[in-house]
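Hey, can you fold this one?
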Amino acid sequence: MSHSFTPPFTAQRPLRVAVIGSGPSGVYAAEALIKQTALPTEVDVFDRLPTPYGLVRYGVAPDHLTIKSVTKGFEKTLSDPRVRFLGNVEFGKDLTHDDLKAHYDAIMYTVGASGDRRLGIPGEDLSGSMSATEFVAWYNGHPDAAAREMVLSATGVAVVGVGNVALDVSRILLKTVAELQASDIAPHALEVLEDSPVKDVWILGRRSAAQAKFTTKELREFGELSDADPVVKPAEVAVDEVAEAAITDNVVRKNLEVIRDFAGRTPEGKPRRIHLRFLVSPVEILGDENGNVSGLKIERNTLDASGNAVGTGETEVLPVQMVLRSVGYRGVALPGVPFDEKLGIIPNVEGRVEGRTGEYTSGWIKRGPSGVIGTNRKDSTDTVAHLLADADALPPVAKASRADIDALLQERGVDVYTFADWQALDTHEQAQGQAQGRPRAKVVHKHEMLGHRQK
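Sure. Predicted structure:
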Protein backbone atom coordinates (compact mmCIF):
# COMPACT_ATOMS: atom_id res chain seq x y z
CA MET A 1 0.00 0.00 0.00
CA SER A 2 1.47 3.34 -1.04
CA HIS A 3 1.63 6.33 1.31
CA SER A 4 3.04 8.68 -1.30
CA PHE A 5 -0.15 10.77 -1.35
CA THR A 6 -0.15 11.65 2.33
CA PRO A 7 0.64 15.38 2.48
CA PRO A 8 3.34 16.05 5.07
CA PHE A 9 1.34 18.91 6.61
CA THR A 10 -2.19 18.70 8.01
CA ALA A 11 -4.54 20.70 10.22
CA GLN A 12 -3.17 18.75 13.22
CA ARG A 13 0.43 19.33 12.08
CA PRO A 14 0.48 22.53 9.99
CA LEU A 15 3.45 23.81 8.00
CA ARG A 16 5.42 25.90 10.53
CA VAL A 17 7.19 28.95 9.12
CA ALA A 18 9.52 31.41 10.90
CA VAL A 19 9.61 34.91 9.41
CA ILE A 20 12.58 37.04 10.53
CA GLY A 21 11.63 40.72 10.47
CA SER A 22 8.20 42.32 10.95
CA GLY A 23 8.43 45.13 8.42
CA PRO A 24 6.19 45.23 5.33
CA SER A 25 7.89 42.24 3.62
CA GLY A 26 7.59 40.08 6.72
CA VAL A 27 3.95 40.91 7.37
CA TYR A 28 3.05 40.52 3.68
CA ALA A 29 4.75 37.10 3.76
CA ALA A 30 2.67 36.07 6.78
CA GLU A 31 -0.46 37.37 5.03
CA ALA A 32 0.29 35.36 1.86
CA LEU A 33 0.93 32.22 3.93
CA ILE A 34 -2.42 32.35 5.75
CA LYS A 35 -4.45 33.53 2.76
CA GLN A 36 -3.68 30.47 0.66
CA THR A 37 -5.89 27.44 1.18
CA ALA A 38 -3.69 24.64 -0.17
CA LEU A 39 -1.83 24.01 3.09
CA PRO A 40 -2.65 24.57 6.77
CA THR A 41 0.03 26.98 8.03
CA GLU A 42 1.26 28.57 11.26
CA VAL A 43 3.59 31.55 11.17
CA ASP A 44 5.84 33.05 13.85
CA VAL A 45 7.05 36.54 12.96
CA PHE A 46 10.17 37.59 14.89
CA ASP A 47 11.60 41.06 15.37
CA ARG A 48 14.58 42.24 17.40
CA LEU A 49 12.57 45.31 18.44
CA PRO A 50 9.51 45.12 20.70
CA THR A 51 7.52 47.04 18.05
CA PRO A 52 6.38 45.68 14.68
CA TYR A 53 6.17 47.28 11.20
CA GLY A 54 9.83 48.11 10.56
CA LEU A 55 10.28 51.04 8.20
CA VAL A 56 6.60 51.96 8.32
CA ARG A 57 7.14 52.96 11.95
CA TYR A 58 10.81 53.98 11.77
CA GLY A 59 11.44 55.03 8.17
CA VAL A 60 8.35 56.70 6.75
CA ALA A 61 8.38 60.47 7.31
CA PRO A 62 6.41 61.41 10.46
CA ASP A 63 4.50 64.08 8.53
CA HIS A 64 3.35 61.60 5.87
CA LEU A 65 0.77 59.83 7.99
CA THR A 66 -1.40 58.51 5.14
CA ILE A 67 1.43 56.20 4.05
CA LYS A 68 1.22 54.61 7.50
CA SER A 69 -2.41 53.59 7.00
CA VAL A 70 -1.12 50.22 5.67
CA THR A 71 -0.71 49.22 9.32
CA LYS A 72 -4.49 48.61 9.48
CA GLY A 73 -3.97 45.61 7.19
CA PHE A 74 -0.81 44.57 9.04
CA GLU A 75 -2.75 44.56 12.29
CA LYS A 76 -5.33 42.20 10.80
CA THR A 77 -2.58 39.76 9.74
CA LEU A 78 -0.71 39.83 13.05
CA SER A 79 -3.96 39.39 15.00
CA ASP A 80 -4.88 36.23 13.09
CA PRO A 81 -4.78 33.14 15.37
CA ARG A 82 -2.46 31.38 12.87
CA VAL A 83 0.13 34.16 13.18
CA ARG A 84 2.17 35.19 16.19
CA PHE A 85 4.37 38.26 16.64
CA LEU A 86 7.39 37.60 18.85
CA GLY A 87 9.03 40.96 19.44
CA ASN A 88 12.27 41.70 21.32
CA VAL A 89 13.82 38.47 19.99
CA GLU A 90 17.11 38.97 18.19
CA PHE A 91 18.07 36.53 15.45
CA GLY A 92 21.64 35.31 15.89
CA LYS A 93 21.62 36.14 19.60
CA ASP A 94 18.40 34.97 21.27
CA LEU A 95 17.68 32.44 18.52
CA THR A 96 20.27 31.03 16.13
CA HIS A 97 19.94 29.71 12.63
CA ASP A 98 20.30 26.16 14.02
CA ASP A 99 17.49 26.78 16.53
CA LEU A 100 15.16 27.80 13.73
CA LYS A 101 16.13 24.81 11.57
CA ALA A 102 15.25 22.55 14.50
CA HIS A 103 11.87 24.19 15.18
CA TYR A 104 10.48 25.29 11.80
CA ASP A 105 9.82 23.56 8.50
CA ALA A 106 10.74 26.73 6.61
CA ILE A 107 12.44 30.05 7.37
CA MET A 108 11.91 33.34 5.57
CA TYR A 109 14.33 36.27 5.98
CA THR A 110 12.70 39.68 5.54
CA VAL A 111 15.12 41.91 7.44
CA GLY A 112 15.34 44.78 4.95
CA ALA A 113 18.47 46.86 4.44
CA SER A 114 19.47 48.61 7.65
CA GLY A 115 22.98 49.64 6.62
CA ASP A 116 23.80 52.65 4.48
CA ARG A 117 26.24 53.44 1.70
CA ARG A 118 29.14 55.79 2.32
CA LEU A 119 30.38 58.66 0.16
CA GLY A 120 34.01 57.55 0.35
CA ILE A 121 35.38 61.10 0.66
CA PRO A 122 37.76 62.69 3.19
CA GLY A 123 36.13 64.02 6.38
CA GLU A 124 33.22 61.60 6.32
CA ASP A 125 33.76 60.64 9.98
CA LEU A 126 33.84 64.18 11.36
CA SER A 127 31.29 65.02 14.04
CA GLY A 128 28.16 66.33 12.30
CA SER A 129 28.54 63.99 9.32
CA MET A 130 26.18 61.03 9.40
CA SER A 131 23.85 58.95 7.29
CA ALA A 132 20.35 60.25 6.64
CA THR A 133 19.21 56.83 7.91
CA GLU A 134 20.63 57.66 11.33
CA PHE A 135 18.95 61.06 11.35
CA VAL A 136 15.60 59.52 10.29
CA ALA A 137 15.95 56.91 13.06
CA TRP A 138 16.54 59.74 15.55
CA TYR A 139 13.45 61.79 14.66
CA ASN A 140 11.27 58.69 14.22
CA GLY A 141 12.16 57.45 17.72
CA HIS A 142 14.00 54.25 16.80
CA PRO A 143 15.24 52.69 20.08
CA ASP A 144 18.79 52.36 18.69
CA ALA A 145 18.93 56.07 17.91
CA ALA A 146 16.78 57.62 20.61
CA ALA A 147 19.63 57.67 23.10
CA ARG A 148 21.80 59.73 20.73
CA GLU A 149 21.91 63.21 22.13
CA MET A 150 21.37 65.11 18.93
CA VAL A 151 22.46 68.71 19.26
CA LEU A 152 21.33 70.76 16.30
CA SER A 153 23.72 73.66 16.26
CA ALA A 154 24.10 73.85 12.47
CA THR A 155 22.84 76.85 10.55
CA GLY A 156 23.67 75.12 7.25
CA VAL A 157 23.02 71.46 6.36
CA ALA A 158 24.00 69.58 3.20
CA VAL A 159 21.96 66.54 2.18
CA VAL A 160 23.75 64.41 -0.39
CA GLY A 161 21.40 62.42 -2.63
CA VAL A 162 18.28 62.99 -4.69
CA GLY A 163 15.77 60.38 -3.51
CA ASN A 164 12.73 60.81 -1.28
CA VAL A 165 14.74 60.21 1.92
CA ALA A 166 16.81 63.30 1.06
CA LEU A 167 13.57 65.24 0.66
CA ASP A 168 12.20 63.86 3.94
CA VAL A 169 15.16 64.88 6.11
CA SER A 170 15.34 68.31 4.46
CA ARG A 171 11.63 68.94 4.95
CA ILE A 172 11.79 67.93 8.62
CA LEU A 173 14.73 70.33 9.14
CA LEU A 174 12.84 73.21 7.50
CA LYS A 175 9.34 72.81 8.90
CA THR A 176 8.16 74.89 11.83
CA VAL A 177 7.06 73.23 15.06
CA ALA A 178 3.48 74.22 14.19
CA GLU A 179 3.82 72.28 10.92
CA LEU A 180 5.36 69.29 12.72
CA GLN A 181 2.75 69.28 15.47
CA ALA A 182 0.35 67.27 13.29
CA SER A 183 2.97 64.56 12.71
CA ASP A 184 4.00 61.60 14.87
CA ILE A 185 7.62 62.80 15.11
CA ALA A 186 9.27 61.59 18.31
CA PRO A 187 8.79 64.03 21.25
CA HIS A 188 12.55 64.43 21.89
CA ALA A 189 13.11 65.42 18.25
CA LEU A 190 10.28 67.94 18.30
CA GLU A 191 11.91 69.70 21.24
CA VAL A 192 15.31 69.86 19.54
CA LEU A 193 13.83 71.05 16.22
CA GLU A 194 11.89 73.78 18.03
CA ASP A 195 15.19 75.48 18.90
CA SER A 196 16.95 74.56 15.65
CA PRO A 197 19.10 77.35 14.17
CA VAL A 198 19.01 75.81 10.67
CA LYS A 199 18.64 78.50 8.00
CA ASP A 200 19.87 76.81 4.81
CA VAL A 201 19.56 73.27 3.55
CA TRP A 202 21.26 72.16 0.34
CA ILE A 203 20.07 69.03 -1.49
CA LEU A 204 22.85 67.87 -3.81
CA GLY A 205 22.58 65.71 -6.91
CA ARG A 206 25.63 64.72 -8.94
CA ARG A 207 23.66 64.35 -12.15
CA SER A 208 21.04 66.53 -13.82
CA ALA A 209 17.59 67.40 -12.50
CA ALA A 210 16.16 65.01 -15.09
CA GLN A 211 17.90 62.11 -13.31
CA ALA A 212 16.68 62.86 -9.80
CA LYS A 213 14.67 60.09 -8.11
CA PHE A 214 12.12 62.28 -6.32
CA THR A 215 8.39 61.76 -6.53
CA THR A 216 6.63 64.93 -7.65
CA LYS A 217 4.23 65.17 -4.72
CA GLU A 218 7.16 65.18 -2.26
CA LEU A 219 9.04 67.74 -4.35
CA ARG A 220 6.05 70.12 -4.53
CA GLU A 221 5.89 70.32 -0.75
CA PHE A 222 9.01 72.51 -0.80
CA GLY A 223 7.00 75.22 -2.50
CA GLU A 224 4.41 75.15 0.30
CA LEU A 225 6.50 75.39 3.48
CA SER A 226 5.49 78.24 5.75
CA ASP A 227 9.03 79.32 6.67
CA ALA A 228 11.26 78.27 3.76
CA ASP A 229 11.81 79.49 0.21
CA PRO A 230 12.97 77.10 -2.53
CA VAL A 231 16.12 78.30 -4.31
CA VAL A 232 17.25 76.84 -7.66
CA LYS A 233 19.96 78.09 -10.05
CA PRO A 234 18.37 78.20 -13.52
CA ALA A 235 21.68 77.22 -15.16
CA GLU A 236 21.82 73.99 -13.13
CA VAL A 237 18.41 72.81 -14.28
CA ALA A 238 18.72 73.69 -17.94
CA VAL A 239 18.08 70.65 -20.14
CA ASP A 240 18.83 70.92 -23.86
CA GLU A 241 15.96 70.41 -26.30
CA VAL A 242 17.18 67.05 -27.59
CA ALA A 243 17.49 65.62 -24.06
CA GLU A 244 14.13 67.12 -23.15
CA ALA A 245 12.40 65.54 -26.16
CA ALA A 246 13.89 62.19 -25.16
CA ILE A 247 12.24 62.20 -21.72
CA THR A 248 9.50 59.58 -21.72
CA ASP A 249 8.99 59.29 -17.98
CA ASN A 250 6.02 61.34 -16.84
CA VAL A 251 7.37 61.72 -13.29
CA VAL A 252 10.62 63.21 -14.62
CA ARG A 253 8.65 65.65 -16.78
CA LYS A 254 6.54 66.78 -13.82
CA ASN A 255 9.61 67.04 -11.57
CA LEU A 256 11.31 69.31 -14.09
CA GLU A 257 8.18 71.51 -14.21
CA VAL A 258 8.21 71.88 -10.41
CA ILE A 259 11.97 72.54 -10.26
CA ARG A 260 11.72 75.14 -13.04
CA ASP A 261 8.83 76.78 -11.24
CA PHE A 262 11.13 77.07 -8.19
CA ALA A 263 13.94 78.48 -10.37
CA GLY A 264 11.63 81.18 -11.69
CA ARG A 265 10.39 82.31 -8.30
CA THR A 266 11.54 85.41 -6.49
CA PRO A 267 12.29 84.37 -2.89
CA GLU A 268 9.68 85.79 -0.51
CA GLY A 269 12.24 86.49 2.20
CA LYS A 270 11.19 83.61 4.45
CA PRO A 271 13.66 82.88 7.30
CA ARG A 272 14.84 79.58 5.79
CA ARG A 273 15.93 78.41 2.35
CA ILE A 274 16.00 75.06 0.58
CA HIS A 275 18.61 74.99 -2.20
CA LEU A 276 18.18 72.28 -4.85
CA ARG A 277 21.53 71.85 -6.57
CA PHE A 278 22.31 69.60 -9.53
CA LEU A 279 25.44 68.53 -11.39
CA VAL A 280 27.57 68.81 -8.24
CA SER A 281 29.48 66.16 -6.28
CA PRO A 282 30.80 66.32 -2.72
CA VAL A 283 34.58 65.90 -2.78
CA GLU A 284 35.59 66.68 0.81
CA ILE A 285 33.96 67.40 4.16
CA LEU A 286 35.97 70.12 5.91
CA GLY A 287 36.42 70.20 9.67
CA ASP A 288 37.39 72.69 12.39
CA GLU A 289 40.07 72.17 15.06
CA ASN A 290 37.57 70.30 17.27
CA GLY A 291 36.74 67.69 14.63
CA ASN A 292 33.34 69.15 13.74
CA VAL A 293 32.06 69.69 10.21
CA SER A 294 32.79 73.25 9.08
CA GLY A 295 32.04 73.07 5.36
CA LEU A 296 31.49 70.86 2.34
CA LYS A 297 33.61 71.19 -0.77
CA ILE A 298 31.63 70.34 -3.92
CA GLU A 299 32.77 70.03 -7.53
CA ARG A 300 30.74 71.07 -10.55
CA ASN A 301 30.02 68.25 -13.01
CA THR A 302 29.12 67.91 -16.65
CA LEU A 303 27.41 64.92 -18.23
CA ASP A 304 29.33 62.81 -20.74
CA ALA A 305 27.76 61.20 -23.83
CA SER A 306 26.34 58.31 -21.82
CA GLY A 307 24.83 60.53 -19.13
CA ASN A 308 27.47 59.97 -16.43
CA ALA A 309 28.64 62.82 -14.21
CA VAL A 310 32.22 63.92 -14.85
CA GLY A 311 34.00 66.44 -12.62
CA THR A 312 35.15 69.74 -14.15
CA GLY A 313 37.70 70.64 -11.47
CA GLU A 314 35.69 73.75 -10.55
CA THR A 315 34.89 73.69 -6.82
CA GLU A 316 33.06 75.73 -4.19
CA VAL A 317 32.60 75.37 -0.43
CA LEU A 318 29.15 75.31 1.13
CA PRO A 319 28.93 76.87 4.63
CA VAL A 320 27.50 73.83 6.43
CA GLN A 321 28.07 72.33 9.88
CA MET A 322 26.15 69.12 9.19
CA VAL A 323 26.29 66.67 6.29
CA LEU A 324 23.66 63.94 5.84
CA ARG A 325 24.43 61.31 3.24
CA SER A 326 21.40 59.80 1.54
CA VAL A 327 22.99 57.72 -1.20
CA GLY A 328 21.29 54.40 -0.58
CA TYR A 329 20.59 51.66 1.94
CA ARG A 330 22.53 48.44 2.17
CA GLY A 331 21.69 45.00 3.50
CA VAL A 332 23.54 43.64 6.54
CA ALA A 333 24.66 40.01 6.85
CA LEU A 334 22.81 37.73 9.28
CA PRO A 335 24.78 35.18 11.40
CA GLY A 336 24.75 31.76 9.72
CA VAL A 337 22.96 32.98 6.58
CA PRO A 338 24.65 33.34 3.15
CA PHE A 339 25.36 36.95 2.14
CA ASP A 340 26.51 38.62 -1.06
CA GLU A 341 28.91 41.35 0.12
CA LYS A 342 29.00 43.06 -3.25
CA LEU A 343 25.24 43.37 -3.72
CA GLY A 344 24.38 43.60 -0.01
CA ILE A 345 21.68 40.92 -0.29
CA ILE A 346 21.06 37.27 0.64
CA PRO A 347 21.97 35.37 -2.57
CA ASN A 348 18.75 33.84 -3.90
CA VAL A 349 16.97 32.60 -6.97
CA GLU A 350 13.47 34.13 -7.00
CA GLY A 351 13.45 34.17 -3.19
CA ARG A 352 14.90 30.68 -2.62
CA VAL A 353 18.14 31.13 -0.66
CA GLU A 354 21.01 29.72 -2.72
CA GLY A 355 22.41 26.43 -1.44
CA ARG A 356 19.80 26.05 1.30
CA THR A 357 16.66 23.93 1.57
CA GLY A 358 13.60 25.40 3.23
CA GLU A 359 15.10 28.90 3.46
CA TYR A 360 13.64 31.88 1.67
CA THR A 361 13.92 35.66 1.49
CA SER A 362 11.83 38.65 0.51
CA GLY A 363 11.97 42.45 0.38
CA TRP A 364 15.09 44.60 0.31
CA ILE A 365 17.38 41.86 1.64
CA LYS A 366 16.24 39.76 -1.35
CA ARG A 367 16.37 42.31 -4.17
CA GLY A 368 18.18 45.40 -2.86
CA PRO A 369 16.60 48.69 -1.70
CA SER A 370 14.08 49.57 -4.40
CA GLY A 371 10.40 50.29 -4.77
CA VAL A 372 7.76 51.51 -2.35
CA ILE A 373 6.02 49.74 0.56
CA GLY A 374 3.51 48.07 -1.74
CA THR A 375 6.27 46.64 -3.97
CA ASN A 376 7.07 44.26 -1.13
CA ARG A 377 3.62 42.72 -1.19
CA LYS A 378 4.08 41.13 -4.62
CA ASP A 379 7.67 40.27 -3.74
CA SER A 380 6.61 38.36 -0.62
CA THR A 381 3.68 36.69 -2.38
CA ASP A 382 6.04 35.48 -5.14
CA THR A 383 8.48 34.00 -2.61
CA VAL A 384 5.65 32.35 -0.65
CA ALA A 385 4.42 30.72 -3.87
CA HIS A 386 7.87 29.08 -4.25
CA LEU A 387 7.86 28.01 -0.59
CA LEU A 388 4.46 26.34 -1.05
CA ALA A 389 5.59 24.66 -4.26
CA ASP A 390 8.50 23.17 -2.29
CA ALA A 391 6.41 22.17 0.74
CA ASP A 392 5.92 18.51 -0.25
CA ALA A 393 9.67 18.04 -0.29
CA LEU A 394 10.30 19.79 3.05
CA PRO A 395 10.90 17.27 5.83
CA PRO A 396 8.64 18.13 8.81
CA VAL A 397 10.84 18.94 11.82
CA ALA A 398 10.41 17.17 15.14
CA LYS A 399 10.08 20.09 17.62
CA ALA A 400 7.53 22.03 15.65
CA SER A 401 4.99 23.22 18.18
CA ARG A 402 4.58 26.73 19.55
CA ALA A 403 5.15 25.29 23.01
CA ASP A 404 8.61 24.03 21.96
CA ILE A 405 9.83 27.43 20.78
CA ASP A 406 8.26 29.20 23.78
CA ALA A 407 10.03 26.84 26.17
CA LEU A 408 13.36 27.47 24.44
CA LEU A 409 12.96 31.26 24.64
CA GLN A 410 11.88 31.06 28.25
CA GLU A 411 14.83 28.87 29.14
CA ARG A 412 17.13 31.52 27.61
CA GLY A 413 15.47 34.31 29.57
CA VAL A 414 14.24 36.12 26.47
CA ASP A 415 11.58 38.70 27.34
CA VAL A 416 9.21 38.13 24.41
CA TYR A 417 6.95 41.06 23.52
CA THR A 418 3.65 39.85 22.08
CA PHE A 419 1.27 41.50 19.63
CA ALA A 420 -1.15 42.14 22.50
CA ASP A 421 1.72 43.91 24.33
CA TRP A 422 2.33 46.05 21.25
CA GLN A 423 -1.38 46.90 21.06
CA ALA A 424 -1.27 48.10 24.68
CA LEU A 425 1.75 50.30 23.83
CA ASP A 426 0.04 51.53 20.66
CA THR A 427 -3.05 52.59 22.65
CA HIS A 428 -0.82 54.33 25.20
CA GLU A 429 1.12 56.25 22.52
CA GLN A 430 -2.07 57.43 20.85
CA ALA A 431 -3.57 58.54 24.16
CA GLN A 432 -0.38 60.47 25.06
CA GLY A 433 -0.44 62.07 21.62
CA GLN A 434 -4.08 63.11 21.88
CA ALA A 435 -3.34 64.81 25.17
CA GLN A 436 -0.78 66.94 23.27
CA GLY A 437 -3.00 67.48 20.24
CA ARG A 438 -0.89 65.10 18.14
CA PRO A 439 -1.63 61.75 16.43
CA ARG A 440 0.72 59.87 18.78
CA ALA A 441 3.65 60.44 21.13
CA LYS A 442 6.13 57.63 20.56
CA VAL A 443 7.81 55.76 23.38
CA VAL A 444 11.42 55.61 22.21
CA HIS A 445 13.38 53.71 24.83
CA LYS A 446 13.29 49.94 24.80
CA HIS A 447 13.02 49.56 28.60
CA GLU A 448 9.97 51.85 28.58
CA MET A 449 8.37 49.88 25.75
CA LEU A 450 8.88 46.67 27.69
CA GLY A 451 7.14 48.28 30.65
CA HIS A 452 3.92 48.68 28.66
CA ARG A 453 2.21 45.31 28.49
CA GLN A 454 -1.19 43.86 27.94
CA LYS A 455 -2.85 44.02 31.36
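The chain has 17 helices and 18 strands. Let me know if you want another pass with a different chain boundary.
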